[in-house]
Write the C-alpha cells for this entry.
Amino acid sequence: MNSYPLIRKCLAIGFIFMFIGLTSIPSINAYKSMSDHTTNTTYPLNIPFNNGTLSGHVTDSEENPLNGARVRVYFHDTYRENYSDSTGYYHVTNISICYCIKNATCSKQGYSPAWVNLTIGENTSHDFVLTPSNMTELVITSLSPFTIKNVGNTTALNVYWSITVTVKRGFIFIGKSASGVVLGPLEPGQEIIAGSIGLLLGFGDIEITWAAWADNAPMVSEKRNGRLILFFFNAQ
C-alpha cells in the first residue's frame, strides 16, 4: 500500500493545527485593563491654581501716567493688589484662575475710582483711565435742539455756546452764526437747551459746528457736513 498520500494528509493536517495554534496565542496586552492602556496619556496636573495675572497702565484723561495708583482684584472673598510705578505700569499676580468674573478696581487719591469686570487668565491686560475727582465736564447731548449737559461733579460756571456756519461751496441768502452765554450756573447732571441758528436759505455745501464751554470746563464740539438746498439741509 502506498503510504505517501497518507503522509501528505497528515502533514497538511499538522500545518493546519499549527496555524490555528499560532493565531490563538493571546497578545501580551490583551488582558490588560482599559486603564492600563490609557495611563500613558498624561495631563498637566501641576498648573498652580493661583497663576493668573493682570497688568497694564494707569493714566489720566490726558494720557499722562499716574504713579501710585492702586489696582485691586477681588475674588473668592479675598483680593490681590499692586501699585503703578512712575510709568503708570502695574502688575497684579497670584490671581485665582476659574470660570468666573472678577472685579478689578483702580483708585488714587484726588481721582474718581474706575472699575471693570474681567475674566482673568495667565496673562490678562487692562488699562485704566482716572479722572480728577473734582472736575467739570460738558457734553452735547442733542443738536436739534442744541442741548448741553454737565456730566462732571462740580458746578459749571458761565456756560457759553456757539453755532458756526461755514460755506464750503455755494452761497447762503439767509442765516448766520450764533452764540451766547447761559446765565447762571449749570449744576452736575443738569441739562439745558442753548440757542439755535435760526433759518437757513441757500444752495451749496456747508459745515455747521456746535460748540459749548465754560469758565471751568474745556470746549466740546460737534460738526456736521452737508448740502443746503433752499431751506433743507441734508447732513452727510
Residues 25-48 have pLDDT under 50 and may be disordered. The first strand starts at residue 52 and ends at 60.
